[in-house]
Amino acid sequence: MTTTTGRERTPTWTNWAGTASASPARVVEPRCSDEVADVVVSAAARGEKVRVVGSGHSFTPLCATDGTHVRLTHLSGILDVDRALGRVRVAGGTPLHVLNPILEGLGLALPNLGDIDRQTIAGAIATGTHGTGVRHQGIASAVVGLTLVLADGSVVSVDDAHDVELFEAARVGLGAFGVVTEVELQCVPAFRLRALETQARLSDVLANYEQMVAEHDHVDVLWFKHSDRVLLKRNSRVDSSDAGESQPRWQAWLDDELLGNRTLEAVNRLAAAAPRLAPVINEISGRAIGNKDHTDVSWKVFCSSRKVRFKESEYAVPLASLPAVIGELRAWIDKHGTAYPFPAEIRSLGADDVWLSTAYERESAYVAVQQYHRMDDGGIFAAFESIVREHDGRPHWGKLHTLGAEDFARLYPRFGDVLRVRDRVDPDRRFANDHLTHVLGA
Ligand SMILES: Cc1cc2nc3c(=O)[nH]c(=O)nc-3n(C[C@H](O)[C@H](O)[C@H](O)COP(=O)(O)OP(=O)(O)OC[C@H]3O[C@@H](n4cnc5c(N)ncnc54)[C@H](O)[C@@H]3O)c2cc1C
């Protein structure tokens, strides 16, 4: 186990977006569940709090602590494969970009993914990370078992037959129930996706949204704010024998690096220097994007590299509320005058049964609002939050929001059960920090 202590030797931790930071008293990198248990027990003896950090891709200060920071850098990879059931047991610190190609080699895949693969598996499920598709769910829905180190140092394995309440609470668990050292995942046979990307009008997309998401497996809409233009991405599952037209490597690089990241960075810098140009820039961007049609293995279509830094808030609302939410947001942006060069993202998801999932028992539309990291948000996050509040919006646990425990008690039918499980497994709040106290209560 690697341990770094002393403020001069534990550099300040900052998340990917630069929206959260911490100066932990010590940083530990255990090599197995038993070492994680030692870490938790010794932190308790010192009266220190414990927070696990995944890849630091959450925008909220979920990982911040002045106590012990646990990094599962050494707990990575596949531990076990059940080929008959299509299940794998993976170490909690496994990054998705490591997991996805290994699964492909086994002829398996996660059923749905978000748009990047930098997160660790335990970090991704802890905040309810999701992709898009009303016939599909978030990553935590694929979790069929968890191994956790609890606050008293015990190591427990939970699933739908063993301590089902802890299993349900910890699937999207915000790191509040213990350190997840192993995750068992129900995979699907590896599959290919045909990716169709076209320019479209926001008004047309909203008018046909429910029909469109019913017809395509994964619909992702990028809306160029200040304009009626969108990039419409429709990914459909194709037969595994359907090779389709795969994208040459140079073109994938051109799209991801040059057009995706470098052009986006340049466009955002320009808008930061001359905010009044943002509407023109967005209109041109919306017209300039080219149509694309290619087929590839699922994870290569779902995930791309995101190098331009931004701040983001994302809320899930009932699917039928989407046109109203976008209409109100658009009216606010048009009236307000602040420049928003970053495209907003609209996705959808089927209902699930994970207690703290944003799609718990609700077919949902997701609206994500961003601002380039060098620009002031101009009040958009607060305005967006007051719009979605009226539509029973549930914030992504890892993205900017100000909601607290009393809001979540109203928004999540099983919130009381979640708190009861937390009282049972972490009565001394070993895994708490200020942010968790705000969202789950003291
Ligand atoms: C560029 C970018 C793109 C994104 N795209 C998407 C997207 O498409 N869809 C989406 O839903 N979200 C997306 N997100 C949000 C991101 O997926 C989540 O915030 C996710 O939780 C980050 O995973 P992580 O490994 O970085 O975890 P961290 O942010 O480091 O931690 C998140 C939480 O998990 C806990 N945790 C981590 N490891 C463990 C463990 N082993 N045991 C217990 N608790 C643990 C932490 O304590 C913390 O509470 C994106 C974020 C960024 C910056």
CATH topology of the largest domain: Uridine Diphospho-n-acetylenolpyruvylglucosamine Reductase, domain 3
Q: Biggest sheet, in brief?
A: 8 strands, antiparallel
Can you tell me the CATH architecture of the largest domain? 2-Layer Sandwich
Inertia-based shape: globular
Give the distinct bound molecules: flavin-adenine dinucleotide
Count the beta strands.
21
**Poorly predicted tracts of residues:** none
On the 0 to 100 scale, the average pLDDT is: 93
Which class of secondary structure composition applies to the elements? alpha+beta
Radius of gyration: 21 Å
Number of helices: 14
- Strand arrangement within the widest β-sheet reads 17-14-16-15-19-20-18-21
Strand content: 25-35%
What helical percentage do the residues reach?
25-40%
CATH class of the largest domain: Alpha Beta
Cα distance, first to last residue? 31 Å
Number of folding domains? 2
Domain FAD-binding PCMH-type: 20-190
Family: Belongs to the oxygen-dependent FAD-linked oxidoreductase family.
GO molecular function: D-arabinono-1,4-lactone oxidase activity; FAD binding; L-gulono-1,4-lactone dehydrogenase activity
Organism: Knoellia sinensis KCTC 19936
Describe the structure.
This protein has about 450 residues and is α+β, with helices and mostly antiparallel strands. It has two domains: about 1-190 and about 405-440, Uridine Diphospho-n-acetylenolpyruvylglucosamine Reductase, domain 3 (2-Layer Sandwich), CATH 3.30.465.10; about 190-395, Vanillyl-alcohol Oxidase, Chain A, domain 3, CATH 3.40.462.10. About 30% of the residues lie in helices and about 25% in strands. It is built from 14 helices and 21 strands. The chain has helices at about 35-45, 95-105, 120-125, 165-170, 200-205, 210-215, 250-275, 280-290, 300, 320-335, 380-390, 405-410, 415-425, 435-440; strands at about 1-5, 15, 20, 25-30, 50-55, 70, 80, 85-90, 110, 145-150, 155-160, 180-185, 190, 190-200, 220-225, 230-240, 290-295, 310-320, 345-350, 365-370, 395. The strands form five sheets. Strands 17-14-16-15-19-20-18-21 form an eight-stranded antiparallel β-sheet. A hairpin with a 6-residue loop joins strand 2 (about 15) and strand 3. Helix 4 (about 165-170) crosses helix 13 (about 415-425) and helix 10 runs antiparallel to helix 11 (about 380-390). The longest helix is centred in the middle third of the chain and has 25 residues, at about 250-275. It is globular, with a radius of gyration of 21 Å. The chain starts with a strand and ends with a helix. Flavin-adenine dinucleotide (FAD) binds next to strand 5, helix 3 and strand 12. Pfam families: ALO, FAD_binding_4. Keywords: Ascorbate biosynthesis, Oxidoreductase. One of its GO terms (molecular function) is D-arabinono-1,4-lactone oxidase activity.
